[in-house]
Amino acid sequence: MVFATAKSLTEKILLLRRHSDLSSQDVGPALEYIDNYWPKLTRYLPKDDDSLVGLPNPYLVPSFEKGHEFDFNELYYWDSYFMVQGMLDKKHQKLVVGVLEDLLFMLDRFKIIPNASRTYLMGRSQPPFLTSFILDVYKTYGLDKKWLASAMEKAEGEYNRVWMGTSKPNARQVHRGLSRYYDVNYLNDLAEAESGWDMTTRFGHKCLNYLPVDLNALLYKYEVDLAYAATELGKEQDAKKWKKAANSRKQTMDALMWSELKGQYYDYNFAREQRGSINSLAAYYTMWAGMADERQAKKLVSSLRKFENQGGLATTDSALVGQLIPGSLPAQWAYPNGWAPLHFIVVKGLQRYGYHEDARRIAIKWLKTNLDWYNNHGVFLEKYNVVQPGKPPAKGLYPSQTGFGWTNAVFTRFCQEFIKED
After folding, report:
1. So where are the chain's domains?
2. Cβ atoms 346, 362 nearer than 8 A
3. Please, which residues have CB within 8 angstroms of residue 307's CB and are 6 or more apart in sequence?
4. Cys staple from 195: which of 6, 9, 20, 181, with CB 3.0 to 4.6 Å?
5. Alpha-carbon distance 109 to 187, whole Å?
């Protein structure tokens, strides 16, 4: 009883302190920096230029640093979804809708949304966020049902052709109706690049053998979103079909990927017919998508302690020996690194299931990590060392980037939601 009283008192103190952790004055200069940075990340190329695909509307690139060896001029699929999350307002409507229309344009033209708008990146895609992007735009800007019907018809085509394809160039649906990441060259490392987690410890350099939990949660979200759109458009039979598909996917994912003992979802190695052993934040896509039931969500929330550190959430729960083997590919999508899109996914998942204090705690930790680095170095990074926030992140396969679009966007979004005006 004494413990319960102490705990209640602690909770009250935390509630009293929570709004003073960061103020609008604390984050003001960083938000101004971000607002001034977006023009540096904006491109407009209406006609093809060598390998760069022409697009009808201005779009955003992930990063820009003058004189940096690693330069971006192309639009990326999943980066685009996260970059607009801090821009869902009237001021940015033309840009946000234009970026979505550019993705749909490439889908029409190439029958796939490629990794990025380069001709040499057509052999793979990136994590599919198209229906989420469409519904964000539809709901935020109140677009009409004719627009919704057209956009969702294209998304359904992507779902069927790309993500549920069973043969080259889209051999992704491979086991019990579930899908894997893929590349037309049938190389594991390039399939891993399609996951966006290039590189990671999740797949043991055998990505083609795995059914990833995040990908299949995203496809569950497609099915739920397509059911929602069908209902909006008065197509109840179609809605029932999509709800049935979503329910079937959940049942299969639960059978193959859910560990009741560990309270976690895991990627499934269908070649070996066994679950993977890596604890990763990919599991929390199931909460973001609304796929986990209440009991599973409670266990997932309890499991967050495996990932939570001083600076936020690590991508995986601990360092592995395989990350340290000389000559192996650096695994930047792993401990000790934290990434903005994964913090967004986890926080939104927590909010969806009513875990608002957990969501806020994690968001504030992430904001502080971003803000401290900005205050000390004058830049935002693509990823952070959340275990030792004052130290640089673990290096990846390509040079580290600054001024990074999705970091800027998630920082802005979290400020909008969690920092009160003074």
Report:
1. 16-41+307-422
2. yes
3. 279, 281, 313, 314, 315, 316, 317
4. 181
5. 25
Q: Which helix (H) or strand (E) holds 113?
A: none
The whole-number average pLDDT for the span 170-198 is: 98
- Contacting residues for 187 by C-beta, under 8 A, at least 6 apart: none
Dist CA 11 CA 319 (whole Å): 32
**Once rounded to an integer, what is the mean pLDDT over residues 372-394?**
96
Cis status of the peptide bond prior to 122, with omega within 30 of 0: no
Q: What is the mean pLDDT of residues 381-385?
A: 96
- The tally of CA atoms less than 13 A away on the side-chain side of residue 119 is 7
| CA–CA gap between residue 79 and residue 340 (Å, rounded) | 10
What is the pTM for the complete model shown? Answer: 0.93
- Enumerate residues 6+ apart whose C-beta is below 8 A from 388: 310, 311, 336
13 C-beta neighbours (distance < 10 Å), count = 10
Q: What is the DSSP letter of 159?
A: I
Residue 185 has which token pair? 């060259």
For range 120-143, the mean pLDDT = 98
DSSP 8-state secondary structure symbol assigned to residue 326: T
**What pLDDT is attached to residue 15?**
44
Average pLDDT for residues 294-315, to the nearest whole number? 98
> Distance between CA atoms of 269 and 188, rounded to whole angstroms?
13
Peptide bond into 199 cis (omega under 30): yes
